[in-house]
Amino acid sequence: MHIHILGICGTFMGGLAALAREAGHRVTGCDSAVYPPMSDQLKALGIDLIEGFGADQLSLSPDMYVVGNVVSRAHLPNGTPKYPLMEAILECGAAYTSGPQWLAEHVLQGRHVLAVAGTHGKTTTTAMLTWILDCAGLEPGFLVGGVPLNFGVSARLGGSPGGQTHTGTQRLTPPPQRPLFVIEADEYDTAFFDKRSKFVHYRPRTAILNNLEFDHADVFDDLTAIERQFHHLVRTVPGSGMLVVNGLEESLDRVLHMGHWCQVHTFGSTVSDFTAQGEPHAFDVLLHGKRIARVEWGLTGVHNQLNALAAVAAASHVGVAPAAAAIALQTFENVRRRMEVRGSVPYPGGAVTVYDDFAHHPTAIRTTLDGLRRRLGAPGSGGANRILAVFEPRSNTMKLGTIKSQLPWSLEQADLAFCHAGGLEWDAAETLRPLGRRAQVATTLDDLVRQVVSAAQPGDHIVCMSNGGFGGVHQLLLNALDAKGRSI
């Protein structure tokens, strides 16, 4: 089968392309304004990528057009369609479907699907769970909305569950009868012609509900609307399935109170089934108050501790003992663009380090900065260990300004904050006024880099946060910081 993917460089669609290619399908695709890591992955796979959405791509005559949710029926100010290829597909009656629907029909059918849902932490938790299952010799397939460093790719088909672990020891329980597939389960809508959340297509037997708060203001009117979609996911889990639910979230309590039909394991709260005791980088895993495992790893932050509890609980549903899961997590290497160090510039008195992080919702920004602050400790008397937060409100929710009032709260752990406000329809400077002189706003990338480099001091940690490419700001900062260092 030849499939042509519209919006192929999105994290989900890029992963779907990799799966289709591995399954033996011919894959082509189109997109615009592409950026790593998906563009790099597609290139490595040898998948032909066409820039833009021109109607001339109709001449490719694929068996199926797979349409990403970036595509709409929108028109430009001059009246021409924004996505002329989609208009041509509709006019000629060519076959098309959504990415989640194609995945459900061609990959997920007949598998034990483990789905990881939640407003935050989906990508990291999906990668953790996949690594645990892989270390247990279960050869899971997966689709992650990022590139797990343990695997180097965002998706693979997987194999049949085996009996050998990574260390060559036998599993203590029989492998599952169905091949496993771990998927990041997004609540965002499926396509312009299917406004259900993506995750309702996946029909998991194991589902993690990691957290839930208001996001995607371009799709959902309020938190209640998102809770309803999460309950649609709950309705698809069979009676033999399992829900792994964050016990700290009142919104998820409301989802469960709408009804559920399978076993529920909670994590995180003091009265949950799975709890943690200790610091986020070294903690005991407790089940009903009894120590069952210990995790010691390089990750920081309470959010990652909670992600680990969710992954350990979900893995137990397919026979992986919590102690074995904890051992696997000790070698978990995180995901690209999750506090990924992009470079360090030596300065007299201490190097300046630049990080890349995918955080874009205020809660995710706060969580990222809290985790770094816990690791670094308070700034030293000489100013070392300062955190400089550099961010762009790029998500549709942030562009609309729906939750902009939470930004000062999200940036509390930063010593200085720098906002790229180009293209926003709301006043970022006014929003960040509670931070006083700690916050600066720039409307161009050049001005942003100048502001950050001018303020940078030896020993600083610069965290760049965006759900996009951020115009390559990481390398721009490293280049400018290097030039400044050489002039000192």
Characterise this structure:
The chain has 488 residues and is α/β, with parallel strands linked by helices. It folds into three domains: 2-98, 3-Layer(aba) Sandwich (Rossmann fold); 110-329, Mur-like, catalytic domain (UDP-N-acetylmuramoyl-L-alanine:D-glutamate ligase), CATH 3.40.1190; 340-487, Protein-Tyrosine Phosphatase, Chain A (Alpha-Beta Complex). Helices cover 31% and strands 23% of the residues. The chain has helices at 11-22, 38-45, 84-92, 99-108, 122-135, 223-235, 250-257, 302-316, 322-329, 362-376, 396-400, 407-410, 428-431, 445-455, 473-487; strands at residues 2-6, 26-31, 48-51, 64-67, 96-98, 112-117, 141-143, 155-156, 180-185, 189-191, 194-197, 206-209, 242-246, 263-267, 274-279, 282-287, 290-296, 340-345, 352-357, 387-391, 416-420, 439-442, 461-465. The chain has a seven-stranded mixed β-sheet with strand order 8-7-9-6-12-13-14, sandwiched between helices. Strand 13 (242-246), helix 7 (250-257) and strand 14 form a beta-alpha-beta unit. The radius of gyration is 23 Å and the shape is globular. The N and C termini lie far apart (60 Å).
